[in-house]
Amino acid sequence: MKFLAQIIALAAMIQLLFAINSIPAGDRALPVRQAHKNSTGATGRTLPSMSNDDNPAMGYAEFISSGHVSAWPMRRGLWKIDEGYIRTIPYCFVDKRTYENIGDSGKSCKIRAAFNVWSGALNGRPSAASGHSLGFRVANDHFCCTSYRYGTENQPQTDSDFQCDWDHSRWPSDTLAIHWIDDVKASGSAGSSTTGYVRAADKEKPNRHWMRVASGATPDDIAHEFGHGMIHEHQRWDRDDHVEFRCDNLVGMWDKINTAHVAEKISPAQAHRALCEDLAMAHKYHAPSQDYIKGAGLNVNSQPRLDGPGGFDMDSIMLYDSYSSSEAGDQADIRTAVLVAIRRDANGQKIPGSETMIPHRTRPSAKDVQFVKDFYAWDEAKYQESQKKDPGAT
């Protein structure tokens, strides 16, 4: 993975949005930020992939069932929420620079390419035939913000970065705002995004759904961010039966442990355990482990993290590869990788020598697709009702 880091996406769902055929041809309060972290080198794409036969029990992990966030609502056009039959996710670029760096008509078409990753997996646009109702509102040449303060380029992120004066005349406040981020502010991250759809008490509150995309992000990195609504597969409750997390191998982890050791006045061993196992502590110190800790079913706001049916999904696009965030970068191996696949015997003991490298996933798995069809199912009755009111409308 090129650089990866803390969804789509948002997507409350799963921001899974995807640019379906309608498209011309990864510390906030809620929702929790999910980063897709990567090395700066090769992605391990040449490694053999694990087939479904090697992993017969597959499932997704998601937030929506808990009520922590919701699926994106049905929408007619851009402004009419809770109407129509398609669950449309509108998006916009925050400013011209973002549009030129990652927009659909700028220097690259990364966003559209990421949508196409999902579109192919979902068998096209929302319909009875494809079995889903997830749509996407293509951005136009108007930006989210009437003015936008990015902060100093090539400097670490600060609280004053990403300040947007929302253009309420052109964009509903729940629109997904897409930001470009330079490599220094990205800190080795390919992208980050909010998770799920948030129905704010103040319906006019903007910026509650956002995605930040780094220059080095690939379309499949961004597709991962659009998958948020699901959480990271390696943060499931049952992950230890299938993968092994080596916290010590994370880039910069020991600096965070030493900081916590001094600040909390605890032993290095206690600081290590806290930052590698306690999600709240990892968030507090911005430790890279926060994107790996399984959370014991809770996030920092004591909201359930729910494992979807069917067990762990080794093929999920939401599973980090073995190269992500490793101190060894693209040279990571079984010894230096952060996350590796393992097998256990009938007694639950790890089988010696069973560790294997996890390759970079470039497309949604069967269970990732099932997530969309579970939470964004096609509703024929809604479709027929909508067509009677306004034939041909979407």
From TrEMBL:
Span of domain Peptidase M12A: 222-251
Signal peptide interval: 1-19
One protein family per Pfam: Astacin
GO molecular function: metalloendopeptidase activity
Keywords: Signal
One Gene Ontology biological process: proteolysis
Domain of life according to the entry: Eukaryota
Designated name of the protein: Peptidase M12A domain-containing protein
